[in-house]
Amino acid sequence: GAVVSQHPSRVICKSGTSVKIECRSLDFQATTMFWYRQFPKQSLMLMATSNEGSKATYEQGVEKDKFLINHASLTLSTLTVTSAHPEDSSFYICSAQGQGTSYEQYFGPGTRLTVT
Amino acid sequence: DQQVKQNSPSLSVQEGRISILNCDYTNSMFDYFLWYKKYPAEGPTFLISISSIKDKNEDGRFTVFLNKSAKHLSLHIVPSQPGDSAVYFCAASVLRQFYFGTGTSLTVIP
């Protein structure tokens, strides 16, 4: 099946710093990538949808200036958490959807962000 | 507004028995439904899907049933195995946009 990687898998940063998380589709071209956040015991919360070469579409309540998303190529999307706060600590997961009519999303392994 | 709901946060089943996970949705425009399995600290993995034009899809031990009139989706796992213990999310799609349920934590007791 399709493989999606995320890097780093874990990151600890200090309040006020920025953190970049990479999401790569390894064996297919992802026209659309999604970024999710998972809180403990809660569902996956969709943060934004990004299509290659265009600006991301953010869900209501997600600060676009805080969570910068770039989808510069068909295999790479990045999420940058700017001026991180402890409340940004969470598990961030990306997924990728290929071209064509397939509905399946392929998820990355997730990134655990801890802001101290 | 939660368009996809999984009303049971947890479920325990004996090994070898059937596990039934349920999912309800509100949007009649959803045209594709999926189930994902998730282990702690990992990304979800795709399990099985069903198009809205079907009412059943089977893959090995996993069967998904769709009742469009009731806007209800269920995943049957039989026989259940300890390795099936995980959180299961249902998802529904329209126009390639996805909506996830809140998940059901399945524990299969050996």
What's the alpha carbon Rg of chain B, rounded to whole Å?
13 Å
Shape of chain A: globular
Beta-sheet strand percentage of chain A?
over 45%
Low-pLDDT parts of chain B are none
> Which percent range describes the beta-strand content of chain B?
over 45%
Mind telling me the C-alpha Rg of chain A? 13 Å
Largest sheet of chain A: 7 strands, mixed
N-to-C SSE string of chain B, H for helix and E for strand: EEEEEEEEEEE
Return residue spans of chain A where pLDDT drops below 50 for at least 5 consecutive residues: none
Give the helix tally of chain B: 0
Helix content of chain B: under 10%
What would you call the shape of chain B?
Answer: globular
Total helical segments of chain A:
0
Structural class of chain B: mainly beta
Residue share in helix of chain A:
under 10%
- First and last CA, distance of chain A: 37 Å
Q: What is the multimeric organization of the chains shown?
A: heterodimer
Summary of the model, kept short:
The complex is a heterodimer of chains A (116) and B (110). With 116 residues, chain A is mainly β. Chain A has no helices and eleven strands.
Describe this structure in words.
The complex is a heterodimer of chains A (116) and B (110). Helices cover 0% and strands 54% of the residues of chain A. With 116 residues, chain A is an all-beta fold. In chain A, strand 7 (67-73) and strand 8 form a beta hairpin. The mean pLDDT of chain A is 89. With 110 residues, chain B is mostly beta strands. The A-B interface holds A 1, 4, 6, 32, 34, 41-44, 46, 49, 91, 93, 95, 97, 103-110, 112 and B 9, 32, 34, 36, 41-46, 49, 89, 93, 96-103.
Keyword list:
heterodimer; A: 116 residues; mainly beta; seven-stranded mixed beta sheet; four-stranded antiparallel beta sheet; globular; B: 110 residues; six-stranded mixed beta sheet; five-stranded antiparallel beta sheet; 11 strands; 0% helix; 57% strand
